[in-house]
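Bench notes, bay 3.
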Amino acid sequence: MLYVVISFLFLAIVLYFLLGGADFGAGIIELFTSEDNKSRTRKTSYQAIGPVWEANHMWLVIAVVIMFVGFPVIYSDMCTYLHIPLLIMLLGITARGTAFAFRNYDAIKGKKTQNFYNRIFVYSSFVTPLFLGIIAGSAISRQIDLHATDFLSAYIYGWFNLFSVSVGLFTVALSGYLAAIYLIGEADDDKDVLRFIRKAKLMNILAVIFGGFVFITADLEKVRLAYFIFGNPVSLVAVITASISLVILWVLINKGKRKIIRVFAAYQVTMILLAVGYMHFPYFIMIKDGQNLSLLTLHAPTKTIDTLGWGLFIGSFIILPSLFYLYYSFQKKDEII
């Protein structure tokens, strides 16, 4: 049952990167859109994420619950030594959700208040995935020091380093890329389609640049990232197939296949996560002194894990069909009307 719980944990993390990342990416796309086109971008983004923007955070909640109940020691250490980036990320989620709701449902909709909500929305959409990536980078950077004796070593240097920040920037670029790909299929105007294609190309280029920066900073800070990715056949195959799917995606875009490209974009990000995470398993956090926090040893008692596993397994039969129907119903709303 332990492996069932771990599988649900990684599934929740991957889905949050895919769905929540694209959600944040809509704000990133808007941030880098000219004033003349911002209103159309907002309209398309709202059509895409408006009905389900809160549901995407369900995967984060599930991951947090699994960590809290199933792996309390790892959860405690993570919330202690990474509490600053975690707090900033949670504040970003809250600010972004609040601004999104107010700017769409504000009864007055004055120009000043709308500008205020728009700024909060786009900046928090940038900050949140940035710190999500920083947290992910910190987990494998070996910079977290459980034996630190001063504030900076314990609570700052573990996440505020070149490698973690570069992973954060890479996450921002991936979020923007996912959003642009998704929005290509939502746009109902040819000019908007071309504009989102240009945004997707830009974010694709930025992802490659920041991805290279991740490898450079990993080498500078002695993180064996290249070994983790290219030192085993599973990660290597994941990288190769992700690269091939990227080529297929752009071929499909040129042929006007606007819906299926989402599958290839999601596949690419999933393969990136697999390539990085495969060699780290079962370690969830890699510590400075070489003592890693393992999911296979630092778990809750067997009875707790069994109960959690059955709860997740049974709950998935209720949650997943309901969630899929939510997506389906809003995709078909125009046909119904």
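Next record in the batch:
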Amino acid sequence: MTKVTPFLMFNDQLEAAMEFYTSTFPDSEIRNVARTGEDGPITSAEFVVGGQSFMGYNGGAYFSFSEGFSLYVDCEDQNEVDEYWDKLVSAGAEPTACGWIKDPFGLSWQIVPKRFMELVGDKDPAKVKAVMEAMMTMVKLDVAALERAYKEA
């Protein structure tokens, strides 16, 4: 385990969340689980999603997530963006804006293609502005449209 590990407080959906996350992202696993009694519900767990370790706890109905914390998924290309987006939507996630999507457990994800970061890293402020303006009109990020905005700037 690393020195600093995100700790996620779920209301009562830790087990379902872990199962979904570890089945959706490669390099994922459930490591340690604590239950209430031998066959009782999971109270806490250590799990890995996409190589990142997490601790999770079922803390009760008064815990919820906000957009102040999100998980950033660094995607190779549009196909990978589409793959994760579709898996999240199929599980009941709600798309929001600018590549953000809120999963059925209330956690926000940013599904971002590497190409977006390359384009906004350009030294030409007009090109960066055009890409950012295009991104602000999108729900799911579209690499071809971002590149078009870049080229037309």
